[in-house]
Amino acid sequence: MIDPYAAYDALTRNLSEFEVTEDHLKLLRRANVTFGGSEWGAPCIDGKRPYGSGNLVESIAQAVWPQWGDWDQERQARYLDESRDDLIRLHAATTVALEICLLRGEFKAGRYRLVDWRQWEPVQVGGPRG
To answer: Which domain of life does this protein belong to (predicted)?
Structure first.
C-alpha cells in the first residue's frame, strides 16, 4: 500500500491544475468532521476515521461504489487488493478538492487552475486553456 502522505506530496509538488470529481465529492459528503488539533483547536476531518470506519480503504470503497454492499467478501477483498493504491491516491487528492471547494464556496465537480497561492479558478471549456 502506498503511503497517503507520499501520494499527497507527489500530487501537489508541481500542481497547477486539478480535476474535482464526483468521487472527491462523495468522500467529502461522508467526511467525519470534528474539532481537534493543538493550540486553539480547529474544525478538521478525523484523521483516524476520515470517512466513517477505521478501515480507510474499505470506507473509501463504500463511499465511491454504492454497489459495494452487494458484493460478497471475496469480491470485496479482490477489489481492495487491485484498487488499494488508487483509492489511497483518491483520498490524498481529496485534500486538494476540499481546498478548492472551501475557497470557492461551492462543492462542484470540474477542472480548476491554480492562479495564485490558494486561488483556484475554473478552467473554461473551449477557452484559451480548456
So the answer is: Bacteria
